[in-house]
Specification:
The chain is α/β, with parallel strands linked by helices. Helices cover about 40% and strands about 20% of the residues. A five-stranded mixed β-sheet has the order 7-6-5-8-12. The longest helix has 25 residues. The radius of gyration is 23 Å and the shape is globular. The two termini are about 20 Å apart. This is ROK family transcriptional regulator. Belongs to the ROK (NagC/XylR) family. InterPro entries: ATPase_NBD, ROK, WH-like_DNA-bd_sf, WH_DNA-bd_sf.
């Protein structure tokens, strides 16, 4: 299943490859400008990458006056390497097979046999083999899950698996030849948006995810903010309503108590005297059901207040909204916008709100992206 590694390049060669990966195809003139190289140096550095098949010349464009011949833009060959991304929840492992540009080729979902780390590691390797199908050499496997994970890939605390201090990256690496990386799920999705999504070219943005938990990712100066506290779910306990319900940790009116899918379905179910799933809660609110409208409206207001706080503290160029519960932002848009205006300076510019794909596949794709990053950057 393993493949020959793309040894991380250094200096200008590395920057050239990264520019083409993220923004290609690019003309030689544009590449030379971005990396500050002469035409001769550019030719010398790209030649081995063309010979290895990592780069390819695409259709010739207009004449390039700097080199005196028709330009031949350069691009990455996305199918030169393949990656598997796996998102692990408390119930399932969802895997995707992607190209070097994180384009999803195949998906597959498996139920977890149990929560034993060894059993989950076996399942992930088997899932990766199944996705590869004997046709693709896998250069890297990325795994994401909710919880606190250190840089070595040890799961210090797995929120939905009841794990503590599990050397999970090593467990998976012992079972495969492919490079393995493990990261917090929100970190992985943030990086996917940053490298290959709506955050590409946005040097300063934040991501708020709504689902089983409340997640927060931040990119500043075109770089992910990643600290030892990443994965602790800090934003989930930010107070949004001092008179709101209690969360499991005893915090009153925090984001986890108001905005998670369980918080919303629990309140609506109690009010209606029957079990109501998340999509039905939103549908009832859209239809004008008074109880569902009340709960969903308060959640929308709380989300607006959370966006206002994030905007005030980080002043982002855009706020990304994601997660499986993100449709709340559409259904409760009026309440969200009211809160956003109320809790910010009246002259503050409203941040663009960019809703992300709510499908669970995006979480697995994020896991693939952290493998792509590690493969390309060497860290």
């Amino acid at each position: 299943m393993g493949a020959g590694a793309w040894q991380p390049l250094t200096g200008p060669s590395h920057q050239l490859a990264l520019e083409i990966l993220l923004d290609g195809p690019l003309s030689r003139a544009e590449l030379a400008r971005r990396v500050d190289l002469s035409a001769g140096s550019l030719t010398r550095l790209t030649k081995p990458m063309l010979e290895s098949g990592l780069l390819v010349e695409v259709s010739a464009g207009p004449s390039d006056p700097r080199v005196g011949r028709p330009s031949q833009p350069l691009d990455i060959v996305p199918t030169s390497h393949y990656f598997v991304g796996v998102k692990v929840t408390g119930d399932v492992a969802l895997g995707v097979l992607t190209t070097l540009r994180a384009e999803v080729i195949a998906t597959e979902e498996r139920p977890l046999p149990d929560h034993k780390p060894e059993a989950v590691a076996d399942l992930i390797v088997d899932l990766a083999r199944s996705l590869a199908g004997g046709q693709f050499n896998i250069s890297g496997i990325g795994i994401s899950l909710g919880g606190h994970i250190n840089r070595a890939g040890d799961v210090l605390r797995g929120d939905f698996l009841a794990w503590t201090d599990v050397p999970f990256r090593q467990l998976v690496a012992d079972r495969t030849e492919a490079q393995v990386v493990v990261a917090n799920d929100v970190t992985a999705v943030t990086e996917a948006i940053h490298w290959f999504g709506t955050g590409r070219g946005v040097s300063r943005f934040c991501l708020i995810t709504i689902g089983a938990g409340i997640g927060y990712g931040l990119v500043m100066n075109d770089k992910l903010v990643d600290t030892t506290d990443t994965g602790l779910g800090l934003v989930g306990h930010f107070e949004l309503d001092p008179e709101g319900p209690l969360c499991h940790a005893g915090h009153r009116g925090c984001a986890s108590a108001i905005l998670t899918t369980d918080a919303i379905t629990g309140q609506v179910s109690t009010a209606l005297g029957r079990r109501v799933e998340y999509d039905e809660c939103l549908a009832l609110a859209e239809q004008g059901d008074p109880e569902a409208s009340r709960v969903v409206g308060k959640a929308g207001h709380a989300l607006g207040r959370l966006i206002a706080a994030a905007s005030d503290f980080t002043m982002p160029e855009a706020v990304m909204l994601g997660g499986e519960g993100v449709r709340l932002a559409e259904v409760a848009q009026a309440d969200l916008q009211t809160a956003l205006r109320t809790h910010r300076h009246p002259d503050a510019s409203p941040p663009p709100l960019l809703l992300q794909d709510p499908s669970f596949t995006q979480w697995a794709r994020g896991a693939a992206v952290i493998a792509i990053q590690t493969f390309v950057l060497g860290s």
